[in-house]
Design brief:
Chain lengths: 350, 338
């Protein structure tokens, strides 16, 4: 057996997980549904946590986590997913699988917020003896449905869950997030075909189309990913294309796909790695992929995040807040640049 | 596709009275179908080779629990992982070589690491598939399968013990790799013509079956090499050398106790497997013997090469996997005894 080496971490983990195991207050299954402002507030707070925990750990993938945090927030708190943090193995739960496992800090922040474990554990990210691993490991931390980190496999695993649901006549749904770089993997397209063949309408995949992968932009590394919407449609999927930072659009898409029958659904979500945060956006090569911010950079990024927190000041009535507009404009610009090479304008497929 | 020929030599039959039986893949397919009736958790994902792996028998009776994922081994293994995580007991089947080599990482991430209840079944193992040639011959699969922590690796010797192994595999909860073969195989167990009744066949995962007692040397074999080990022991006996024969059907976890006893009581070991001599049964035995009871060992297996197309018997001869190779190895290893 490996020797424990990190007593502080061991203590913290034991305290938190014991509390969990006692299962003192088994609550009812739930579909948390926060109001719109609360969702934005949540995504904002979880973004802060992503930056804080990775900077504290000194490594990790903050930009990969940030690009999908609005989507994750909508899934777990926007009236979309059904789960019970007190019973992580509850058979009727909806499943979420983070196929792009390096986005783990984003998932951990969400799971802690949902109540799967004490947020204090986030401080132990990537430390010896902590279950808050560099990449998600199932059965080591409540709420993790699959061990991921080798890209390309999560959609197939999700399909396995989806097929099992059908065999067991259960109505749970399966959600998977994949990356655009990850889509280079052949297995993604194996899963695409198989899911369409089996008409897995209880399977929803979200493509975090954040334009960058490890060594450069998707445009440079694998430009032929485009036209990606056409590809998924050609594979027999129901496809919607959205701005993945527009909470309203994300919610609308996630709710709408639930009614699709006989087809798996793909939500192509245009996102940015470290939206509006200069330490990330300054990096034109890969948006600091796989790099934690240094403490002084984190300070800048956190201050910029605070500036983005406009809903606390403005009327929370809708998505057309100044900040969202800023984001939407930048997205539109990036998308035009990207599609300059394929010559195909972005259209709304929904 | 050519018809499968027996790997059994005339001499095996004459010397030991072993009868030719079905291929181990056939026995697996039948056992799977039988188990499908009582075990509703069993589902099968296959990669467009169900008529080769024999999962077609299950597919015919339980179409709703059978998924043909197409020629996509990575996907099928990960789908099996998801099915297992959701409470099913999936069989993921393909040719041994494609399953282990093509989906190694998917097995690692989705089966071994999370220790999920997935049963990998690889048919067409070894060089005895013959004419289809080396692209289809798994000779590295045991090295790959035994490399996974949490894994159980089983190589049954004949059809009746394959049925028993299949049952045992489903009684055990956790990742298993079961290796089956294409050619008809000599029947070692239930050698009384009542192949259907397999009750009396001893099969316990991780526990070797001693088929013959002897004190000069122990031949530890798996798969089709077990019949050859018996034939070799018979030949050795005619020369006044009594060899112990162990059917080491489980490569991992190895029956440490039986191996250690063999080393202590017979002082020399020959391993025989239809696999590279590296990474499989021989390596596992050598590692244990080196730690517990060092004695000389000789290895019969494919020696650091790929094979070729040809008739199964001819290939086994050309690549050194016959009873007479085992006899030679036994004589050499006995000569090295101190
Ligand atoms: C099979 C595999 N190959 C390579 C890697 C190393 N790797 C980690 S993240 C990454 C880039 C992923 O890009 P993308 O899917 O676009 O994710 P994101 O940009 O959202 O981080 C690579 C190459 C890996 N984890 N798995």
């Amino acid at each position: 057996m490996p020797q424990s080496s990190n007593e502080q971490v061991v203590e913290k983990v034991a305290a938190v997980l014991n509390k969990h195991a006692s299962g003192a207050n088994k609550s009812e299954a739930m579909v948390p549904n926060r109001d719109f402002t609360a969702l934005q507030e949540t995504a904002w707070r979880l973004s802060r946590e992503i930056i804080e925990m990775t900077t504290k750990a000194g490594s990790g993938h903050p930009s990969s986590s940030l690009s999908m945090i609005d989507i994750l927030t909508a899934l777990y708190f926007g009236g979309v997913m059904r789960y019970n943090p007190q019973e992580p193995h509850w058979e009727e739960r909806d499943r979420f699988i983070l196929s792009k496992g390096h986005g783990a800090p984003g998932l951990y922040a969400v799971l802690a917020e949902a109540g799967y474990f004490n947020p204090a554990l986030l401080d132990t990210l990537r430390q010896t003896d902590s279950p808050v691993e560099g990449h998600p490991i199932m059965n080591r931390l409540p709420g993790i449905e699959a061990s991921t980190g080798s890209l390309g496999q999560g959609l197939s695993i999700g399909l396995g869950h989806a097929l099992a649901a059908r065999l067991d006549k259960r109505d749970y749904r399966v959600y998977v997030i994949i990356g655009d770089g990850e889509s280079d993997e052949g297995q993604i397209w194996e899963a695409a075909m198989a899911a369409a063949k089996y008409q897995a309408d209880n399977l929803t995949c979200i493509l975090d189309l954040n334009q960058f992968q490890q060594t450069g932009s998707v445009n440079k590394v694998m430009p032929s990913l485009e036209p990606v919407v056409d590809k998924w449609e050609a594979f027999g999927w129901h496809v919607r294309e959205i701005d993945g930072h527009d909470m309203e659009a994300v919610l609308e898409a996630l709710r709408a796909v639930k009614t699709v029958t006989q087809q798996p659904q793909m939500i192509v979500a245009h996102t940015l790695k470290g939206r509006g945060l200069s330490p990330f956006e300054k990096n034109d090569v890969n948006r600091k992929h796989g790099e934690a911010l240094k403490p002084e950079e984190a300070e800048i990024a956190l201050a910029e995040l605070d500036e983005q927190r406009t809903w606390a000041v403005y009327d929370p009535a809708g998505s057309r807040l100044p900040n969202n507009e800023r984001s939407a404009n930048r997205l539109a610009k990036e998308i035009v640049t990207r599609q300059g090479e394929t010559g195909k304008p972005m259209e709304n497929k929904s | 596709m050519t018809t499968a020929k027996s790997t059994q030599t005339k001499s095996t039959e004459q010397a030991l009275g072993l009868k030719e039986g079905p291929a181990t893949r056939d026995a697996f397919g039948e056992a799977l179908r039988e188990l499908g009736r009582t075990n509703a958790k069993i589902v099968v994902v296959d990669g467009d080779v169900s008529n080769s792996t024999r999962t077609e028998y299950f597919a015919k009776d339980f179409p709703e629990r059978f998924f043909n994922m197409g020629i996509a081994e990575s996907n099928l293994v990960s789908v099996a992982s998801g099915l297992a995580a959701a409470g099913k007991t999936p069989v993921a089947a393909s040719f041994a070589v494609f399953l282990l080599c093509n989906a190694y990482d998917q097995i690692r991430m989705g089966v071994a690491f999370p220790k999920l209840d997935v049963k990998l079944v690889g048919s067409h193992s070894g060089i005895s598939i013959g004419e289809d040639g080396p692209s289809q011959m798994a000779i590295e699969d045991l090295a790959l399968a035994t490399s996974f922590p949490n894994f159980t690796v089983i190589v049954p010797a004949d059809a009746p013990s394959t049925k028993a192994a299949t049952r045992a595999m489903f009684e055990y909860e956790g990742p298993v790799y079961l290796r089956t073969g294409r050619p008809k195989t000599a029947i070692i167990y239930a050698n009384d013509g009542t192949n259907g009744s397999t009750e009396e066949i001893p099969f316990e995962i991780g526990k070797a079956n001693q088929l013959r007692e002897g004190n000069a040397v122990t031949i530890i074999a798996c798969g089709i090499m077990v019949a050859m080990a018996l034939e070799a022991a018979h030949t050795l006996s005619q020369n006044g050398i009594e060899a112990r024969v162990l059917d080491m059907h489980t490569i991992k976890p190895l029956d440490n106790e039986a191996v250690e006893r063999a080393a202590r009581e017979t002082g020399a070991i020959v391993t025989a497997e239809e696999h590279l001599i590296t990474g499989g049964l021989g390596d596992a035995v050598a590692r244990l013997v080196a730690m517990r009871q060092p004695v000389p060992i000789q290895f019969v297996g494919v020696n650091d090469t790929y094979a070729e197309s040809g008739e199964a018997q001819a290939l086994l001869k050309k690549y050194g996997l016959t009873a007479s190779n085992i006899v030679d190895a036994a004589k050499q290893v006995i000569a090295r005894k101190s």
